[in-house]
Amino acid sequence: MERAALIMFVAMSLIPLGDSAGKLLTSAHGVSPLWVASSRFFLATAMIAPFVPHGTFALLRNWRIWLRGLILAMGITCIQMALRTEDIANVFAAFFIGPLISFTLGALVLREPITGLRAVLIACGFAGVLVVVRPGFGGGAGLLWAVAAGSFYGLFLTATRWLAGAGSPVALAFTQFGIAALALLPFGLANLPPATTAVAGLTVLSAAGSLLGNLLLLYANRIAPATQLAPLVYFQLIAAVALGWAIFGALPDALTWLGLALIVGAGLASARLRG
C-alpha cells in the first residue's frame, strides 16, 4: 500500500501541475483555452499511442466510448476556461463537485446503493462547493466554468463505471484522448498561439502532466484497492493550493478554506464508508 500511496501522491501532484501550465498559457501568454485543451489531447494521444494494446480500435464501434470521450473534451475545455481568470485552488475546489455528481448518478442511473449517511455527506460536499463558488455573493464568474467542468467530470466518472470491463485501462485512455482530440481539433487550429519557446514548453508540460498523472492513477489502482486509494484523490486540492502559492502567489481566503474543509471532509468520510 505504501508504494501505491506514493504513486498516488505523485499522480495527484502532476495533474494540477499540468493545469498550472495551462493557466500560465492562458493568463500570462494570452493563449486560447481551446488551444490548451485541444493540444493536450492531441499530444496525450501521440504519447500513449506506442503502448496501445491489440484490439483497441474495435472499441470505437461502441457509441458509449464516443460519448465518454466527448464528455471529457467538454470538461477539460471548461476547466481551462475557468483557469484563465480564477486561482487554481478555487478552480479545483469547485471542480470537486464531480465526485458528488458521480455518486448521485450512480444511484439514479447505475442503480448503485446510496445510504442516508452517504446522502448527507454528498450534501455537505455540495455545500462546500457553494461556499467556494459563492454564486451571487462575490464568487468569480469564472468559477461557474469550474462547476461545469466538475459536472462533466461527474458524468465522465459515471460513464467510466458504465464501461467497466470494456477494455484495458490503456485502451480506454487512448480512446478518450483520441476522441477528445478529434472533437477539439478544429477549435485548436482556429486558435493557434504564437510559436514561441515558452508557449511550446508550457503546452508540452500541460499535456505531459495530465497524461502521466492519469496513467499513474490507473497504475496505482492496479496494485491497491480503489477503496484505499480514494481518500488520496483529495491530495489534488493540497497540491493545487501549493502550486497556486508557489507559481502565482495566491492563497485561498477564509471562506474558501472553509469550503475546502467541507469538500475534503465529506470526501474522506464517504471514501471511508466505501471501505
Oligomer: single chain
Portion in strands: under 5%
Low-confidence stretches: none
Tally of DSSP β-strands: 0
Calculate Rg over CA atoms. Answer: 18 Å
Count of helical stretches? 12
Protein name: Membrane protein
Organism: Pseudosulfitobacter pseudonitzschiae
Pfam families: EamA
Transmembrane segments: 30-53, 65-83, 89-110, 117-137, 143-163, 170-189, 195-217, 229-248, 254-273
Which features characterize this protein?
275 residues; mainly alpha
What does this entry look like structurally?
The chain has helices at residues 2-28, 33-48, 63-83, 88-95, 97-108, 116-133, 142-162, 169-189, 197-223, 226-229, 235-248, 254-274. It has 275 residues and is mostly helical. The protein has one domain.
Describe how the helices and strands are arranged.
Blueprint: H1 2-28, H2 33-48, H3 63-83, H4 88-95, H5 97-108, H6 116-133, H7 142-162, H8 169-189, H9 197-223, H10 226-229, H11 235-248, H12 254-274
Helix pairs in contact: 1-9, 1-11, 2-3, 2-8, 2-9, 3-7, 3-8, 4-6, 4-7, 4-11, 5-6, 5-7, 6-12
Task: Provide a short characterization of the protein structure.
The chain has 275 residues and is mainly α. The chain has one domain (2-274). Helices cover 76% and strands 0% of the residues.
